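Prompt: Have a read of the protein record below and flag anything odd:
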Amino acid sequence: MNATIETLLNHRSIRSFKDTRLNQEQIDTLVAAAQQASTSSYMMAYSIIGVTDEDKKAELADITGQNYVKENGHLFIFCADLYRTTIKADKKQYEEMLANLENSEHFLVSAIDAALAAQNAAIAAESMGLGICYIGSIRNQIARVDELLSLPKHVIPLFGMVVGEPAQKPEQKPRLPKDAVYFENEYSHYEEKLDTFNETIAAYYRSRSNNNRQDSWTDQMLRRFQTPMRMDVTEFVQKKGFNKR
């Protein structure tokens, strides 16, 4: 097993960091790694905002409900970005572009491009001995985050990533068994595998050093999807010129 595979298999989310800011070389390295990610049709349909303003970080921490959004080595916000494709368009060209700018296909493309870039950055960070945690909760108030970052039309904030020197080493959270996520030639049924995984994750929740609880993976998912969540995101995304047709 090589070092890259070991880094991937040792991943865990870090939510407590030493009070050490990333230096410019580290930031540049992570951004360069992100930029080398695969991209659909060479669009590179994403942007990355590095947030260093302490007031903005404090507000983002309040929005997300996560104190480590403020206390970390560096905060990145990954955005879907189709604005860049429109900059050189005249009015007629822009009108002709709208069908593609607003369709679901290019919403998916830009979100996937951003996710691929972010994961490259995450792997690079962990290979450098840093820890990371993705922050989806910036979408708790997505319109406010959009305003805070001064994002133009055809750019939306998708998620954040905090990076820094770990101040903890949490237990590694179990993943679904291979047979529940990998199938050959056609989708397979795997309810028994989920039952086994429920036993595994229940044992993990009972034994971990922080936030012990009685729970299973399927119960957790049932609760999540029975409760309406971030229902303003659809309208916001469409207002910004994405996923309208």
